[in-house]
TrEMBL record:
<protein>
    <recommendedName>
        <fullName>F-box domain-containing protein</fullName>
    </recommendedName>
</protein>
<dbReference type="Pfam" id="PF00646">
    <property type="entry name" value="F-box"/>
</dbReference>
<dbReference type="InterPro" id="IPR036047">
    <property type="entry name" value="F-box-like_dom_sf"/>
</dbReference>
<feature type="domain" description="F-box">
    <location>
        <begin position="20"/>
        <end position="66"/>
    </location>
</feature>
<dbReference type="InterPro" id="IPR001810">
    <property type="entry name" value="F-box_dom"/>
</dbReference>
Length: 222
C-alpha cells in the first residue's frame, strides 16, 4: 500500500484532527486576520473546537477588534478593563438583536405605552431592562415594568429613615446559572452605599449593604 492509499484509509476523525492541529499552529497575528472574516457566533464555535483554540481566542484583542468592526448596536467600548468573556457576551446579544431587527428595517411599531408620575427630585435606574429602581427622598422602591399594573407592583427595597436624600441610584446585574446577581449604588450628599439586591423568586425583595463609605467632609483650604 503506497502513501496515497494510506491517506484514503484515514478515518474522518483523523482527517479533521490533523486539520485542527494545523489550525492550532497558526501564529496569533494570522489568527487575528482570520478572525476578521468570521461572525461572532463563528468565532465562539471555533473557540470550542479545542483547548488550544479556546486559549488563543481568549485573547481580548481578538474580541476588541471584533467589537470595533461590527455594525451592531453596542454600549461604549471596548475598554482595556473589559474582559474577553464580557465582550463575547455583549457581542452575542448584539448579534442576536441585529438578526431579528437589522439596521435596514424600519423602527418597530409601538403597540402601547405606560406612564407614571413622580416628583421633581426623583432619580431612577433600570435593572436588567425590567425593574425600575426609583429613589425619592430617602426611600428606594422597585417597580416591575412587565406588569400591566406597574404602580401596584411597587416594593420598598430601602428606607434610610435618617432623612438623607438619595441623590443618585445606579444598578448593575447579570443572569447566570445560579440566578440573578444584582447590585445598587446609592449616592448621598456626603457618602455612598454599595448594596446587593436580594432576589425572591426572581424578583427584587430588599437590599443588603456591602459597603458604606465614610462621610465626605468638604472644607475650605487655607
Amino acid at each position: 500500500m503506497d502513501h496515497h492509499d494510506r491517506q484514503l484509509t484515514l478515518s474522518p476523525d483523523d482527517f479533521w484532527g490533523r486539520k485542527l492541529a494545523c489550525l492550532e499552529g497558526i501564529p496569533l497575528d494570522i489568527l487575528h486576520l482570520f478572525a476578521d472574516h468570521l461572525s461572532v457566533q463563528d468565532l465562539v464555535a471555533l473557540s470550542t473546537a479545542s483547548q488550544s483554540l479556546r486559549y488563543l481566542l481568549s485573547d481580548p484583542g481578538v474580541w476588541r477588534k471584533c467589537y470595533t468592526r461590527t455594525g451592531f448596536l453596542l454600549p461604549p467600548g471596548p475598554h482595556d478593563w473589559q474582559s474577553a468573556s464580557y465582550l463575547v457576551d455583549v457581542l452575542l446579544r448584539a448579534e442576536k438583536l441585529y438578526s431579528v431587527w437589522p439596521s435596514s428595517s424600519s423602527c418597530p411599531e409601538i403597540l402601547h405605552t405606560r406612564s407614571m408620575s413622580f416628583g421633581c427630585d426623583v432619580t431612577f435606574s433600570v435593572l436588567l431592562g425590567r425593574w425600575l429602581l426609583v429613589a425619592e427622598g430617602s426611600t428606594l422602591v422597585c417597580y416591575d415594568s412587565r406588569r400591566s399594573d406597574i404602580p401596584n407592583s411597587v416594593k420598598t427595597l430601602f428606607d434610610d429613615g435618617a432623612n438623607r436624600p438619595i441623590l443618585r441610584v445606579f444598578s448593575v446585574g447579570s443572569v447566570g446559572e445560579d440566578g440573578v446577581l444584582a447590585f445598587a449604588v446609592l449616592l448621598f450628599n456626603d457618602s455612598f452605599t454599595i448594596a446587593k439586591i436580594l432576589m425572591d423568586q426572581g424578583e427584587p425583595s430588599t437590599i443588603q449593604t456591602v459597603l458604606t463609605s465614610k462621610p465626605i467632609i468638604v472644607g475650605r483650604l487655607g
